[in-house]
Specification:
Blueprint (H helix, E strand, L loop, with lengths): L3 H23 L4 H23 L5 H4 L2 H16 L10 H23 L4 H22 L13 H16 L4 H22 L13
């Protein structure tokens, strides 16, 4: 039987690795830079989560499949995307949205599996979903996507809440997983499409 949690985790790793590789291409990094950026984007959030949960060594050290997926994604990106400037601008945020949805749910599931309460699990899902992207954006000298105006972290939080509530109400694991992923993804894609954002906290400087 397929371990769907593990399968989605590897898919999220590939998607976030693609996101990191595309970001590196936009900033004209060398192959090593592309590999580093793809790696920290793909496994950064999960590494922070595992360190906080005390489940060490972290997941990618225990299972080299994650590194293999990252390497394969970087190689395919080099082969298929030869001219990063010609890649449509929406590809990076859309790839990031899929990674956010996948990793958020995986993070919540892993936190619940070690006996944490629902609220803490949602926070762990948020860290898993946004951690790698924050590291990627900081290395690219950009304001992290999670801190920009469009709804980002909110999508992760809502997805995590949907997962925990679905399980609490007795929903099947697969239904809860897909429901949470779809919710987070739809919210994030809608924010990208229509530039949805939360009200800004704007303190006016006295003249």
């Amino acid at each position: 039987m397929i371990d769907w949690i593990y399968f989605f985790d590897l898919c999220g790793t590939a998607v976030f690795a693609l996101s990191g590789a595309l970001a590196a291409g936009r900033h004209k990094m060398d192959p090593f830079g592309v590999l580093v950026l793809a790696s920290v984007t793909a496994i950064g959030g999960g590494s922070i989560r595992d360190a906080l949960l005390g489940t060490t060594p972290v997941f990618w050290i225990q299972d080299p499949s994650y590194i293999i997926v990252i390497l394969a994604t970087v190689v395919l990106t080099f082969v298929l995307v030869r001219k990063p400037k010609r890649v449509p601008r929406y590809i990076l945020p859309v790839a990031d949205a899929f990674g956010l949805a996948l990793f958020t749910t995986i993070g919540v599931e892993k936190a619940l599996s070690v006996g944490l309460d629902g609220m803490t699990a949602v926070v762990m899902g948020l860290i898993t979903g946004v951690g790698g992207g924050i590291i990627r954006d900081l290395l690219c000298q950009q304001v992290p996507m999670v801190l920009r105006t469009e709804i980002y972290a909110t999508a992760s939080i809502v997805g995590g809440i949907c997962y925990t509530i679905s399980l609490h109400l007795g929903a099947a694991d697969m239904f809860a997983l897909l429901f949470a992923m779809s919710t987070a993804l739809v919210i994030r894609l809608a924010a990208i499409r229509w530039h949805l954002s939360l009200p800004a906290f704007d303190l006016k400087t006295p003249q």
